[in-house]
Amino acid sequence: GGDHTITYPILQAVAEKHGPMGLVHVDAHTDTGDRALGEKIFHGTPFRRCVEEGLLDCSRVVQIGIRGSSYDPDPYEYCRQQGFRVVPAEECWRKSLVPLMGEVRKQMGDKPVYISFDIDALDPAYAPGTGTPEIAGLTPAQALEIIRGCKGLNVVGCDLVEVAPMYDVSGNTALLGANLLFEMLCVLPRVTTM
């Protein structure tokens, strides 16, 4: 639950201990806007604030599943200017993300990494219980490939945001969110899995 504004103070605390973070950000949106309704802190702005405060190692930021409507003709320009790797959803369609995650592991190296997963990265056919659904998203199997692909990284924290169970009477979004969080716990360093 919660929206992506929760990641901003978490990254402030984690970066205080570990320095600038690598980030595996799975989302339909880049969340790098400057302002919304005149406010600088908004669920669409946290990663811009993180860049401004030096909380991210921008050469080790990857955003996966990005898509949807935008107010900007080039909605990924800011991210690319910072050095982020942006992987739009259409680059993920109809294929395994295991090769992508091999590239991401090389990019992240052995330095600290944070995983931030917005449930709206998934297609609303699988996860309708979110406040900002966008069509043509990732599948649950691809979500597992992304998270399991983080095994072996120096993961120092993770979150899953924007699950809104009241928007999904089937309960599937909450079930999917709980399972994705469990998978994230399984890829933390020193966790033994069978």
UniProtKB/TrEMBL annotation:
GO terms for biological process: putrescine biosynthetic process from arginine, via agmatine. It holds the Pfam family Arginase. GO terms for molecular function: agmatinase activity; metal ion binding. Keywords: Hydrolase, Metal-binding. InterPro entries: Ureohydrolase, Ureohydrolase_dom_sf, Ureohydrolase_Mn_BS. Belongs to the arginase family. Agmatinase subfamily. PANTHER family: ARGINASE/AGMATINASE, GUANIDINO ACID HYDROLASE, MITOCHONDRIAL. This is SPEB protein. It comes from Fregetta grallaria.
